[in-house]
Amino acid sequence: MSFNNTNTDILIAGAFAAFTVDVLVYPLDTIKTRLQSPDYKRLYTKSSTNALPRSLFRGLYQGIGSVILATIPSSGAFFTTYEGTKSILSHTSLPTPITHSVASSAGELVSCFILTPAEVLKQNAQMVSHPQRSPSSNKIFEGNATILALRKFNSPTQLWRGYTALAGRNLPFTAMQFPMFEHLRTSIQTYRKRKGIATGSMWEAALVTAVSAALAGSVAAVITTPIDVVKTRIMLSAADSDQPRGETQQKAVKAIEAQGRDAKAEIEKAQQAARGGRAGGLAVGREIWRTEGVKGLFRGGALRGVWTALGSGLYLGVYESGRRYLEGRRVGVAEGLRVE
């Protein structure tokens, strides 16, 4: 059977795939963000034993709401752009891997535009420590990690400061993943047909797609880990990139001192974070290399590889099965109407 999906099929399948992945593998993404944060050693290691404290594994679903709301339309936009661009370029003389790279890159540019604010908010929410609601409070959202993270931003434009960082990570990742993915999927399908074990079922297509996506995704994820670390640092510092001045700063100093904390040290740290928020990816990468070395640039790489293998496998596997199901259902309904 030939599958010719409408944009609606692609949007629905992409949205359902994104929702499934967000719910199932989000905890691994939270742990990865915490491992890659500049405060990792201070917040998530015990200086005496270097063991991982329980706080690393608390609140693993913090910030998921904003991501679900954004990834559903962004995923639909990605697949619509990807499939449309791939269809157009298939009529040219471009090599197939180049076609897949260009199509996936076009999809990512559109997707990142929609996803960036939620991604910045999500990563800052993932770093909120023990969001707890006061028993005497009547405020419904007090203690909510996403709301607490949102309060750190002085302007909506700060939520978009991670666009180049997100696109800078996703473009090379998808440019590597999708050609490998399409090649692996075609190779597996050809092998099964040659051996006479292909069934042509929706479930076979989903499984082949999932395995191919997991293998391709894990390889691309490990290779692009340094870019992911830089992206995480930039997004975590986005809220601090506009610092208070004058009277506002004096009030901040008094408030910090009233709590018995070192105001000078905290202001210096905030100013460093502000410089990081404005710094470009190369500057942030050099700073990580200077202070933490290669290990710092690849921090969380193994977890990112596992997370991406699971996420990509589920994402594209669910997308493929959903796309075929919707196409088959639509064709079946149309044939039934013709018979009547």
Molecular structure report:
The protein has 340 residues and is mostly helical. It is built from 12 helices and no strands. Helix 3 (64-89) packs antiparallel against helix 4 (96-126). The radius of gyration is 23 Å and the shape is globular. The model is unreliable at 242-248 (pLDDT under 50).
Features:
single chain, 340 residues, mainly alpha, 12 helices, globular, MCP_dom_sf, transport, membrane
In short:
This protein has 340 residues and is an all-alpha fold.
Task: Lay out the secondary structure.
Layout: H1 7-36, H2 40-44, H3 64-89, H4 96-126, H5 145-150, H6 163-194, H7 202-223, H8 225-236, H9 246-258, H10 263-278, H11 281-297, H12 301-339
Helix pairs in contact: 1-3, 1-12, 3-4, 4-6, 6-7, 6-8, 7-12, 8-11, 9-10
Task: Give start-end ranges of low-pLDDT stretches.
Answer: 242-248
Q: Give the distance, in angstroms, between the N- and C-terminal Cα atoms.
A: 22 Å
Largest sheet: none
Based on secondary structure, the structural category is: mainly alpha
General shape: globular
Number of strands: 0
Fraction of helical residues: over 70%
User: How much strand content do the residues show?
Assistant: under 5%
Radius of gyration: 23 Å
What does the average pLDDT come to?
81
Order of helices and strands: HHHHHHHHHHHH
What's the tally of helices? Answer: 12
